[in-house]
Amino acid sequence: MASRFAVAFQFLTAIPLFEAREFSPRELARAMGAFPLVGLALGAGLVAFHWVLGHRLPGVLEGAVLVALLAWATGSFHLDGLADTADGLAGGWTRERALEIMKDSRVGAVGAAALVLAILTKALGLGLLPEGIRAWGLLLTPAVARGSVVWLAYGSIYARPRAGLGTPYTEHLDRGTLNLALLGSALPCLLLGWRGLLAFGLTLLYTGWLKGFFHRRLGGVTGDTLGFAEETGEILFLLCLHLLF
After folding, report:
1. Nearest C-alpha neighbor of 153 from the set 138, 164, 142, 141
2. pTM reported for the whole predicted model
3. pLDDT tens digits along 192-221
């Protein structure tokens, strides 16, 4: 598990905690079993900020800083996928055109709007968590979303004709790694009791729906759609926490 965590941490974050090196597609796929652990590490950073400084700030301002910290720690990796996917789905009437737009490094109007809405919603969702569950919500949100991405990738087809960033996950991800990721994101939710497990289950249901939608609309998934699922999965889990607690 230590080697999986090291690979996943290097891939999902911009923090130089481990020595940088290239990984084989199979190593990247195996590392998905540790995605929730990387999410817990990121969440622990959010909790630490809340305890040290965030609790002195107004909730909305603290939420904005927490989102900025997450973006810094991950290199805005998933936000880029969110914007590209939104642009592609909005501007591409055919599968081929949508994938072409998603590959464009420029951000369109729809992608920019999606970024603003996602950042605003996450800032409010994180900063205004109910006081009794705030620390648990900050800890669990990144972990649950990263676990749900593994569920999206499992059994999916890579949508592009040529290999890309998401190819290792669609071609080499096995059932054992999926089970490890789901266990790693579900068990911590027990800290919030049955309502935490329900929020986790609803996030998985959403991701399952996304999997079907992306296959119908794009013919499969890409690295961008995985990033889209991660960002929107965090938002959905936060919404569930606000509704259930």
Report:
1. 164
2. 0.93
3. 999 999 999 999 999 999 999 999 999 999
